[in-house]
Amino acid sequence: MTIPAIITVAITGAVPSKADNPAVPISPAEQIASTEAAFRAGASLVHVHVRDDAGRSSSDPARFAEVQAGIRDRCPGMIIQFSTGGRGRAQNERARPLDLKPDMASLATGSVNFAAQIYENHPDLVAAMAATMRDLAIKPEIEVFDLAMLYATQSLIDRGLVVPPPHVQFVLGIPNALPARRRLLEFAVAELADLMSGATWTAAGIGRHQLEVARWALELGGHVRTGLEDNLKYDRSRLAASNAELVEQVAAVCPDYNRHPATPGEARAILGLPPAS
């Protein structure tokens, strides 16, 4: 018996463009098709950003609704996670799509320096978005770019703003944030287990660290994120041809660690989500 591993595919992101890689899906139709291919390759969770007609990061609920409807139609049971990230979007707009009630939404619980910008998440904004997710029964994926965000998550749980057990994603390899070091991931996973019993976790490696971090996560009992959003940001020498190709790479190494790509049903059970309607 092998152990299921949830493979998350981050299909687009806020930064990559067609100029970076023609494979990046931008329009809703492209995003739906790319997600379907990744789903068939083994992804059971999709992380969704949307773009406007000019290719800029957007909070337009109509765009999110179109992508969500297409994924639900063509990827039965797949977990849909909306981004609430702030790059390219006004802070007061970031929660707008949550009224569509996706299965999950990302929630960064603090601010952090990136390579050329500050990813700002004011404590009041974090608390407000956490409360919205709680009230709409949307499970947050806690995005940890700095270890302080892990302890901030415990504070949100203590205040009743995040329902335990949480699901946490450790993001490794962004310049000025957490580096891609295995000992650091091991420490973070141990801290998570000590602070939040029953928590689940995913690791995402950025750029050239993508597959290496995936291997660490599979070996340590966690779950994996891949996709063009993470592949392009900081290492354009290793561009993938598609989101499906990146998912296939992770699926191919799962047996090395007695793991298999989780089905949507297995992924929902692991994360405590209801079965797909």
Structural class, by secondary structure, is alpha/beta
Number of separate domains? 1
- Please trace the helix and strand order, writing H or E for each element: EEHEEEHEEEEHEHEHEHEHHEH
Proportion of residues in β-strands: 15-25%
Task: Give the number of helices.
Answer: 9
The description of the largest β-sheet is: 8 strands, parallel, barrel
Number of beta strands: 14
Radius of gyration: 17 Å
CATH class, please? Alpha Beta
Low-confidence stretches: none
How far apart the termini lie comes to: 28 Å
Percent in helix: 25-40%
What's the quaternary structure here? Answer: single chain
Kindly describe this structure.
By secondary structure, this protein is of the alpha/beta class. It has one domain (3-271): TIM Barrel, CATH 3.20.20. It contains 9 helices and 14 strands. The chain has helices at residues 28-41, 61-74, 123-135, 148-158, 182-195, 210-220, 228-232, 243-253, 264-271; strands spanning 3-5, 7-10, 45-48, 50-51, 57-58, 79-82, 104-108, 112-113, 118-119, 139-144, 167-172, 200-205, 223-226, 259-261. Strands 2-3-6-7-10-11-12-13 form an 8-stranded parallel beta barrel, surrounded by 8 helices. Strands 1-14 form a two-stranded parallel ribbon. Helix 1 packs parallel to helix 2. The longest helix has 14 residues, at 28-41. The chain is globular. The mean pLDDT is 94.
